[in-house]
């Protein structure tokens, strides 16, 4: 019964869509970081250059997390 009530609610649908895209973004982030760490270790373990993309991609990921949780709705005028 609760499922039927939530399906028509645009806020719930928007929230689910945001969380789905954030989950995809997070999955791609961890997969790419695993590959980059593997490449870094296999080529030159003395210089940890993988930290630059880790941080550089982590910052937009944090903003995406805030957007997915609805923390930026007021700022963007979506409420």
What's this, in brief?
This protein is an all-alpha fold. Helices cover 78% and strands 0% of the residues.
How would you characterize the overall build of this protein?
With about 80 residues, this protein is mainly α. About 80% of the residues lie in helices and about 0% in strands. It has four helices and no strands. Helix 2 runs antiparallel to helix 3 (about 50-70). The chain is elongated. The mean pLDDT is about 90.
Give a quick set of tags describing it.
79 residues; mainly alpha; elongated
Give Rg in angstroms.
18 Å
Largest sheet: none
Average pLDDT number: 89
Give the low-pLDDT segments: none
Tell me the β content: under 5%
Sequence-ordered SSE layout with sheet pairings:
Elements (H helix, E strand, L loop, with lengths): L1 H6 L2 H34 L7 H18 L4 H4 L3
Helix pairs in contact: 2-3
């Amino acid at each position: 019964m609760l499922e039927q009530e939530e399906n028509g609610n645009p806020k719930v649908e928007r929230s689910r869509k945001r969380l789905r895209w954030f989950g995809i973004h997070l999955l791609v982030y961890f997969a790419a970081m695993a590959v980059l760490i593997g490449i870094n270790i296999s080529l030159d373990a003395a210089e940890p250059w993988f930290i630059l993309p880790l941080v550089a991609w982590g910052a937009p990921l944090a903003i995406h997390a805030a957007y997915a949780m609805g923390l930026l709705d007021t700022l963007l005028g979506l409420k």
